[in-house]
């Protein structure tokens, strides 16, 4: 559990959030402009990446105390504060990202060193290869597979196992140096493995996709055409089959759903702050609506923190993380659509940052499962007696 002063962490990062907002529209217009932001040095992306102690020379320090951003609670505070400026940069910045959570859960010491020593190098992106064009993020229905590579054409000897398949809607994949790939090696629920793969291997073909929101993430697709797979690539090789594969995906999603929810909270806060900065007075009805949104925002933030603490305590239970994500996304969608009319019929044209917030929310919806998935997860948890003590919004 986190012992960090969360208020101090928020205060420390508010100037960073403001700097992200200053670059937000340029990056939205051209995702390549993210490099300008990285050149500026205002985003301490390595210090905020969630590296274990020992991999960075100088971790983030808040009031002199080192903060490694390893717990879900710390991550949601960081994500919300920075999303006030630009949620897409929070997800699109270099660093361990989602892959780091899987590595933390499943890797042995050698694999952990291989991953974090590589990612600790400046401007090293990673990818999380789960989603497929026809299967979405349903890990139980994966078509990407570990196959027999057949004989080596050079000498007739065995090539060994290879990865074959197609992943789509994968963040940062076209610029990543390494990441994780979920692939099936045999039928059944225990037949899915997670593999640590370098993107410079033969047969790894990645390209960015065109999107209207969350553009700094540079969603892409990758075709795996007999990508060589080495024995030390398989994460969880030291664990029993029941503790790796699908379990790694479930635990990762449960840890990251509160983070996505916190991004939605940050976007909601940004929209409310923006309209108040652009208008000096409101009608009584408008003041009531904004006050209601403010109350719901505070309640959503409390639920997100509660879900983050639950994920830190038991990452196998996704009940509260699902509730937090569904609640925060509902509010973000409602607020970002309600605010533009308060600034006139041409608000999205005249206020491009506000338009960006509206376009970014659907991208958050797709991360770690849509609200339909979250509602199903919440219902299952509730029926099984979990989280009934929680104060849900």
Quick take:
Helices cover 48% and strands 15% of the residues. It contains eleven helices and nine strands. It has helices at 6-29, 34-40, 72-92, 97-106, 109-119, 246-278, 284-313, 319-338, 347-350, 352-366, 371-383; strands spanning 60-62, 65-67, 125-129, 145-148, 161-171, 176-184, 192-198, 204-208, 219-228.
Topology:
Blueprint: H1 6-29, H2 34-40, E1 60-62, E2 65-67, H3 72-92, H4 97-106, H5 109-119, E3 125-129, E4 145-148, E5 161-171, E6 176-184, E7 192-198, E8 204-208, E9 219-228, H6 246-278, H7 284-313, H8 319-338, H9 347-350, H10 352-366, H11 371-383
Parallel strand pairs: 3-6
Antiparallel strand pairs: 1-2, 4-5, 5-9, 6-7, 8-9
Molecular structure report:
The protein has 393 residues and is α+β, with helices and mostly antiparallel strands. The chain has a four-stranded antiparallel sheet with strand order 4-5-9-8, with no helix packed on it. Helix 1 packs parallel to helix 3 and helix 6 packs antiparallel against helix 7. The longest helix is centred in the middle third of the chain and has 33 residues. It starts with 5 loop residues before the first helix and ends in a 10-residue tail after the last helix.
> What fraction of the residues are assigned to beta strands by DSSP?
5-15%
Q: What about the largest sheet? A: 4 strands, antiparallel
> Number of helix segments?
11
Strands in their spatial order, largest beta sheet: 4-5-9-8
Radius of gyration: 21 Å
Shape: globular
The end-to-end span amounts to 24 Å
Number of E-type strands:
9
Q: Please tell me the overall pLDDT.
A: 91
User: H/E order of the elements?
Assistant: HHEEHHHEEEEEEEHHHHHH
Structural class: alpha+beta
- Helicity, in percent? 40-55%
Which regions are unreliable across 5 or more consecutive residues at pLDDT < 50?
none
